[in-house]
Amino acid sequence: MAVAFESAGAMDAVARMKGTRVLILGDMVADIYLDGRISRISREAPVLVLEEMGERVVAGGAANVAHNAATLGGRVKAFGVLGRDAGGDGIRAVLDKVGVDTAGLVGTAERPTISKTRVIAGGRATVSQQIVRIDKESRDPLPTLLAKELETALLKALSSVDAVVLSDYGSGTVTEEIRAELLAACRQKGMPTIVDSRYGVRSFRGVDYVKQNDAELAAAFDRRLETEEDIERTARELIGELDAKGALITRGEKGMLLFLSDGARYEIPVSDKSEVYDVSGAGDTCVAAFILALAGGTSPQEAAYVSNIASGIAVRKLGTATVSDGELHKKVRELSSC
C-alpha cells in the first residue's frame, strides 16, 4: 500500500547528516561557462562575434554530488580522474573551497578532464542564452595502471568513511573491476552504498540503493513505463537483479517513489509546487542528501523525504546548483510547522 509521507522526524534526520563521512566515486565533470557580449556579425561568416566577459567552472557530474554533500554538512572524500588542465584545476578549486578531501582525484596527462563548455551570449538589452555547447572527454578505457591506482586508494579510504556513492555518467571512471571490488568491500563492512547511473545501472550488482529517474529506468529495461504500476514492477525487477535494498525513482513534478526489498512502497510528493527554474543537477542533490541521511542512521523513507526537499530547493536555482544545510534546515522547519 502506498504511504503518504509526513515531515515528522525530518528535523532530526537533517541534524544527523551533519558530519557524516561519505566517499563519492565517479565521473568528475567540469561545467565551464564562457560568457560573452554580442559585439557584431563577423565579416568571415554569418556568425556572432562575442567579447569575452568571463569564464567560470562549476562542479558537474560526480563532482556536483561531492559539492552538494559538502554544503549539506557532510565530510566528503572525492575519487575520480582529472586531466592536468584548466577543467581539472577548476574542479579541485571548487571542491577545496567547501572542504572536500580531493586527495583521491587522480591527475593524469593521458586523458582530459571531462568538460562541457557552454558559450553564453547576450547584449546590453537582450537576455543571455546558451548558443553552443562543446563537450570534451576521452572515449578510451582507463589505463590499467591508472585504474589500479584509483582502486587501491578507494579500498584504503573505506576505513575512514560511513557510506559510498557511485556516480556513473557513462564516461568510464567506474570500471567493472573497481565496481566489483568496492561494492564487495562495502557489503562486507555493512557500509551503505547508492548508485546513480545514467546508462548502466543494471551492472551494479551488490549495491544497496539505486537512484534513477523514470526515463532512465525505462531506458535501462527498454520498455515504456506509462503507469505507476509499470514503474513499480520494473523497479522491483531492478532491485531483484542487483540484490539491492531499495530503489528511489524520481519523477519530476510528480515527486518520488521509494520501493524497498521487503515490499514496502512510499510515495513522496513534491515539497513545493512553486515555479521550477532549472532541473540541472537536482538528481545529484537528491543522491547526496539521501546517502548523508541514511548514513546518519535515518530510515530509507525518511532519507528519501529529506532528499526530496533538498532537490526541491535545487530546482528553484539557475544552473547546476548546490543546497546548504542551512537552506535545508529552514525548509524542513517551514514544512514541519504547516
Automatic annotation (TrEMBL):
Cross-referenced Gene3D superfamilies: 3.40.1190.20
Stored PROSITE patterns: PFKB_KINASES_2 (PS00584)
Gene Ontology molecular functions: kinase activity
Signal peptide from the UniProt entry: none
Pfam annotation, one family: PfkB
Superkingdom of the organism of origin: Bacteria
InterPro entries: Carboh/pur_kinase_PfkB_CS, PfkB_dom, RfaE_dom_I, Ribokinase-like
Keywords: Kinase, Transferase
Domain Carbohydrate kinase PfkB: 21-322
SUPFAM superfamilies in the cross-refs: Ribokinase-like
The protein, known as: PfkB family carbohydrate kinase
UniProt organism field: Selenomonas sputigena
